[in-house]
Amino acid sequence: MKKFILIVCFSLMIFFTLMGCQSEASNSADDSGKTVLELWNNVAAGRSYFPKLIEAFEKEHPDIKIELNNLNVESSEAEYQAAISDKSLPDIFSTDAFTINELVDLDLVHELDDLFPKDVRAEYTEGVFDEGNASLNGHTYLFPVYKGGTYYMFYNKKVLEDLGIDKVPRTWGELNKVGQKIYKKSDGASYGLIYGGQSDWLVNAITKLFASELSPESGYDYKNGDYKYATEGYIETMKYMKDLLDNKALSPSTLETDSTVARELFVAGQAAFLIDGNWTGQLLHEDGFNDWGVVPLPTKNSDGKQYAKFGLVSNDGLYVAKNTEHWEEVKTFMEFLRENIYQEILKDGEPLIAKDVADFDVDLPFKEMNKISDIFLDMSIRVPNPIVVNPKTQEVKLELQKNAPDAAPGSILMGYLTGQVNDLQDELQKYEDGYNKAFTDAIKGHEEVTREDFKFPNWVPYEPYTEEDYKELK
C-alpha cells in the first residue's frame, strides 16, 4: 500500500511539473519573437514620461518589449550593488549610486559613440559631452537627459500684490528691506524669505552660491588646487542670513523645515520668497499653484555675479550595461529616445533638458520654464576638471568624500543661526583645515596622482573653462 501511494505521489509530481513547464512555455510564447529590454529608472519624473515613450516605441517596434522598473530611491543603491555582484545589470539604467568614472573603471557600461557622433553632439548644450560629464577617456558613456541644475529665488505674486509690493528684490539689501516690510504689513502672518534649513544638500549648495560672488574661490580654489571655506564670501553670507533672521525678514520656520515643507509654507503665503532648485517650478505647477515667478538668487552688489559648476551626475542620464545581449535593439530604443524624450520632459514641466529649450516647438506647461532655463545657462559655468588632466584624480575625490569632516558649511550656517556657533571664522577654518588634510592624505594614497593635477593657474572666475584652456597647461 505504501508503495502504491509513493507511486501515485510521484506520478502527480511529474504531472504538475509538466503542467508548470507547459504554463511557462505558453507564457514565453505570448512574447514569441520579441526581444525584451530591461529599463531601470531612478528618476522621479521618469515615472511620468517613460511609460508614454515606451508605449509609442512599442507601437513602432512590435518586436521589442521594454520592461520598466521604477526603483525606490532609498533602496536603489542596494539593488544596483546586488545586480553588479550577480552580473545582472539591466540593459538600460539610471543611477545615482555610482559615478561615470566608477562604472567605466569597473567595465560595466557600454560605449555610446555610435549614438552620439560629432554632428549629433553639436545639437546639445555646450559642455554636456565634456570629459567627466557624458564622456570619459574620449568616449561617450552617458546618454544625457538633463544637464544638471542650480538654485533660484521664487516669489509668491499674491503675497506681494496683497501687501502692495511691486518690486522683486535683486540685492541683499533690497531683500532685507522688503522682508521687514512684509512682516510688518502682514502683522507677522508672512515673512520675506524661507528655505528648507533641514535639507543639508540645499543649504550647502545655496551658501556656496551666495559666497561665490564675494569669493569665487569659495569651496574650491582652482588656481591653487586646494579647498577654501574660511573666505569672505562664506563669512559675509552667513552674517547676512543672521541679519535676515534677526530682522524678521527670514522665516524662523527655515530652521526646522525641509525643502518640501518650506515649499508648502511658501504656497500657503507664509513667505513671499522661496529659495529652492530648478525642479520647484514643475512641482508648484503640478500642485496647481501658478501664482509665482522666479529670479536669480540676490547678490550683495547690484552688479554682482554668482556661479555654479556646470556638471552632469549619473542621474542626469542613462547608461547601457556592457553585458547587454541586445545591443542592436538597445541602440534602436536609444535612437528613439534621442529624438523624442526631450519633448516629453518639456511637456512635463522640466526645462533643464540636455538640449536648449529654444530648440523645441513645444507648448510649455508654464511660461517661467524659459526663465528657469535662461538663469541656469547664465549661472552654470564650465570649470576646470582634474579628471581631464589625470583620470586617476577621481579616485582621490571619492576617497576624500568618504573621509571629509562632517561639519559642512551648511551645518555651520544653521548652527550660527540657532546660536550654537559663535565664531564663524574659527569654525570655517577648522573645516577648511580638516578638509585639506583629508585631501592631502587622499593624494598621498595614490602614487599616480600629484597635487599639480588639481591646479589650473589659467582659471578665470566666472568664465567658461574650455578645451583651449586645458591645452595651455601642456
UniProtKB/TrEMBL annotation:
Keyword S-adenosyl-L-methionine in record: no
Gene3D superfamilies: Periplasmic binding protein-like II
Residues spanning the signal sequence: 1-20
A Pfam family this chain is assigned to: SBP_bac_1
Swiss-Prot/TrEMBL keywords: Cell membrane, Lipoprotein, Membrane, Palmitate, Signal
SUPFAM superfamilies: Periplasmic binding protein-like II
Transmembrane intervals: none
PANTHER family on file: ARABINOSE-BINDING PROTEIN-RELATED, POLYGALACTURONAN_RHAMNOGALACTURONAN-BINDING PROTEIN YTCQ
Protein name: ABC transporter substrate-binding protein
Species annotation: Virgibacillus necropolis
